[in-house]
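[audit] Reproducing an earlier prediction to check determinism. Same input, same settings, fresh worker. If the tokens differ from the archived copy the diff job will pick it up downstream; this log only records the rerun itself.
[audit] input (669 residues):
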Amino acid sequence: MLKNSLKIETEIASGGEGKIFKLKGQKVYKEFHNINNKIQEKLDRIMLRNINLDSICTPVQLVEENGKTVGYTMNSIEGVNLKNYLFLVSMGKKNIKRSNLVEIATQIASSFNYLHSKRVLVGDVSDNNVLIDENLNIHLIDCDSFQVDKYLCEVGTDEFTPAEMMGKNFKTTPRILNSEYFSLGVLLFKILIPGRHPFTVTNGGSPIENIKSGSFAYPLANDYDFNTPLDKKLLSTWNEMPLYIKECFFKTFKTENRVSPKEWLEVLTKYKMDILENSYSNSIFSEDIVANSDVAISLDRRTGIGNAQNILNSNGTKIGVLEISTKAIKLLIRGSDKELKEFSYEDFGEKNGGFREGRLTNIGKLLDKNRNMNISALKKAIDYSIHEFLAKARELNVKNLYCVATAAIRGAQNRDEILRFLKNEYNLSCRVLSRDEESSLTTNAFKYTGKIHPNGVKVLENSTRKNYLFIDQGGGSTEIAILRGIDSSPIFSKSLNFGSTILLNTLTINSNLSTSLATAFEENLKTVKSKINNTLKKEVRDIPVHECISVGTAITSATGKSGNKKQHCTVMNYDTIEKSCFNAIKFLLEKYETVEELLVALKAEDESKCKNRVLDSALTKALGLPAFLEILKRFNLDKLVVSGTGLWYGTFYHHLEEELGMHQMDIAN
């Protein structure tokens, strides 16, 4: 096309490379100040790629004058700069929903996926190089800078550049797909959390500095950058996004296995559908500013790993259970040989040849911000108890010792290394339970142990015609399950990423040391309410529940009784639990004004090794009981029954059934 054939109306932009003119009709014309052979060859190569997508403003026709290419025409786009648009969204100046943002992000991912299929890289990825029109359609601009074959994109935007490309000369350094995946991730993040750069922190360095140091501060599970506190409004918005979206950002910003445009298309399409089906909020930002409740020792692993069985004595006659939990290590042995008989606490007592003991280890606190557990610290925490418990099991003629681990090891990034350590150091095989396995085994305990108490008998009456709600709160998570009949598989189960230990972590992570303790407890309550409300959707709350059975240190302590035997089958009404929670908080607030004062006192109690851990008990109730109250409220329940027998008893009876070949028996009758 000759330049003199163009019907130029007005000049609409001017820059370092050239000028842009509006043409009559729906086209614009870009004319270069000085075009060389390299630019012309690159334009030819882009044209040969036959890029025909409305969202990508590539050259339509080259324009010549005096036998030389001087510019090109492209489609005219009416729209605003995406960076400015997202700023207006963040200020609440645009009347759109989260589903609209997801659709915008989906268009971006689709455009990148299309270009990559044509063997073209965007190169200079930036929200300044995207326009958005009134119909929320996006358009990539400045497309003559794309990287095509040997013709590089010679410019770049540092805030979208991965660490490995920082400081490179883009005139001589080609981009690769994996580096573009990082840049795409930044752009998508700024869309889903409008205008917010993923590497911007409230009191930290610049995004460029944080990219170089890898300081992506938004948490996944218990991975959290403790040195970079975040704006809580944005953090809670992050927390409310689906795990599958957060995992994609985490992979892109924290690993070399970055997410491709095709993968983004799949998860963003699912996200939009889930929003429209009310599975996730359609609000731009979280409606509640909550503390970080995703700092948890769980990776949401759906399957367990490892073998629980350890043969200690081939001529032995008993079964033992060794549980390595977030807060304690426990050993359980029944005195009688392998037979199915009515449960009795005395059978597990030393007078009758049994053994039951738990020792505080707090291995959940050994996880660092990268979810790795220091093996030396782990050995120090458990070594003495492991050796003593193994010796005790051999002494009591245990044949099969079943070892299980829960949230702390389940959530450890170096989980497999921990299992190898247990095997090499103690010749101990261990099963790391999945969340569903842990929930089922805990439920299994009450089926046997509830029948020894009148309250338990009442709960188990007509069990096939009742729906049971189980709440199991440990140090690392709170499990919720609904069963239609005591022997059935759950019709609903969910693991919330907080337990008593994790709530203490979030209490300190999301507060300054000088923060008043009252304020910190208020934030904890918001965390709990937000997570439970997001988990227990209306369709779940509408399931009729007849009985609630609860396990966990917070609820057993709230009974005011000493020892699991006395606590077992205690009925607790809502008001009693609420009063216990109130009294625990009141006790702590009367003694300590700030978070720092509390932490100092808690550390002193830990180091004292005293058995009467008054502070730890009060704190466990203050942090843990709000979850029980909120769950009861959501199901319109006014009471629950406490189980003094948890996972270790359930594991015992599971393997007893297994060894006796009785897994299918109806134990409720």
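[audit] rerun output stored. Observation attached for the diff report: The longest strand covers residues 68-75.
[audit] end
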